[in-house]
Design a protein that fits this description.
alpha/beta; eight-stranded mixed β-sheet
């Protein structure tokens, strides 16, 4: 069986797509078995060969004692017999699922697949995508049939960027297969690296659905908090004070308001609603949450603009500093960062916008969103938006913000971590 052959290093496991999800998985397996790490980006492969994680999530020591070969060569990839697909699954500008990366990966597998091989998808997709969209591509190119010639499975990724506690080995892994034999083999392979154990889903569709509702649930809960923050702002009530009080009840779920970006929470619900619409059902609750969360960048920008008009009036000569450009704290990931939308909204009103971030790459920001990081900060900002609470920002105090802003400036602390600490400037939070 494939599990035993992998364990004895007679066969090799390959991970296709070495980003935030794929690289940690590949390295974890490489501590136990032979692994090929495949990515189409030659520059990324070159860095990983030097024990450098292009995503800045892993240290060089994480590459130690790993039996892994990094490559972008299909001939090398052919040596594998168990393939894990961990490519991105984004949405386009109209929030329609972009399946091109996963389709391309399926084409690649179709070119090299052999009888007896296994293919497991980890990329987030809507229920049915693996079997209805990916399998036909593989089989058209390879000429092989699932179950009869090869086995297919789905095991949703649960990597949380920036989280050193909840890792691949400590989070229960959901696994599924196209038949009972494949399910058991796939489960045993993942049990090699997942100390927390695996959960065997009864079907591939169930595993796909489980993944997509994890982030949909979070998205809806954050949307509720964002809507409450808008309401409470009109009442002059601090949302975070309300949450502190409410969370004293044992069963209250303490979600927080904020910008919802990244490659999961702000994206995955659209995969589910897209499939739902194809089946003739228009989502109501899920899309309502998306509308609220997608509108928070504009809401924040308008609050800042209103303050500047009230205390300055001359918008074109006003300056705003945004602290934090990544999609969440203490990571370098800028994918789907809603901070970019705040920048865009502010610039629509001809405001001068500066952006700082200790973790983000100015080059990547410019390539992705058209703005760069500001190297030298001013001392006369009309407003400062702390959008991402990086650890570096938590060391700052009232005197620091006073030193870089005007007397009537607004300090917009979106995550509320400076509550009670800002006294010399106008303080506002979601």
């Amino acid at each position: 069986m494939i599990y035993q052959e992998l364990l004895n290093k007679k066969k090799t496991l390959a991970v296709i797509g070495l980003g935030y999800v794929g690289l940690p998985i590949a390295l974890e397996f490489a501590k136990k078995i032979k692994v090929i790490g495949f990515d189409i980006n030659a520059d990324r492969i070159a860095l990983m060969k030097k024990r450098i994680d292009p995503s800045n999530e892993l240290d060089s020591k994480d590459f130690q004692d790993c039996d892994i070969e990094f490559t972008n060569d299909l001939e090398v990839l052919k040596k594998a017999h168990f393939y894990i697909v961990a490519v991105p699954t984004p949405v386009d500008d109209h929030n329609v699922p972009d399946l091109i990366p996963i389709q391309k990966a399926s084409e690649t597998i179709g070119k090299i697949l052999m009888k007896g091989d296994y293919v497991v998808y980890e990329s987030t997709v809507y229920p049915g995508c693996t079997e209805e969209d990916c399998v036909p591509i593989i089989e058209k190119i390879s000429g092989l049939k699932k179950i009869v010639d090869y086995k297919i499975g789905y095991s949703p990724e649960r990597i949380n960027p920036g989280d050193k506690e909840h890792t691949i080995s400590t989070i229960t892994k959901v696994v599924s297969g196209c038949c009972e034999d494949s399910l058991n083999e796939i489960a045993k392979v993942y049990e090699l690296v997942v100390k927390a154990g695996v959960h065997k889903a009864p079907s591939i569709k169930v595993a796909e659905a489980a993944k997509i509702i994890e982030n949909t649930q979070r998205d809806l809960n954050i949307a509720l908090m964002n809507e409450l923050s808008i309401i409470f702002d009109k009442m002059n009530i601090n949302t975070f004070d309300v949450l502190d009080a409410a969370s004293t009840k044992w069963n209250f779920l303490k979600f927080q308001p904020g910008l919802v970006g990244g490659h999961c929470i702000g994206v995955d619900p659209y995969y589910l609603t897209h499939k739902s619409k194809q089946l003739g059902y228009e989502s109501q609750v899920i899309l309502a949450g998306r509308v609220i969360n997608d509108g928070m960048a504009e809401y924040v920008a308008k609050k800042v603009l209103q303050h500047i008009i009230q205390y300055n009036g001359n918008i074109k000569h006003s300056k705003v500093l945004i602290m934090g450009a990544t999609f969440k704290e203490n990571v370098s990931d800028i994918r789907n960062s809603k901070v970019a939308e705040v920048v865009k909204e502010l610039k629509l009103f001809s405001l001068n916008v500066h952006v700082s971030d200790p973790n983000a790459s100015g080059k990547q920001l410019y390539h992705e969103y058209g703005f760069e990081l500001t190297e030298n900060l001013s001392n006369d900002y009309d407003a400062i938006i702390i959008s991402v609470p990086h650890n570096e920002y938590k060391q700052l105090d009232d005197a620091y913000f006073a030193s870089i802003s005007k007397e009537n400036a607004m300090i917009a602390d979106l995550k509320g971590f400076l509550r009670g600490k800002i006294n010399s400037r106008h303080y506002w939070t979601l």
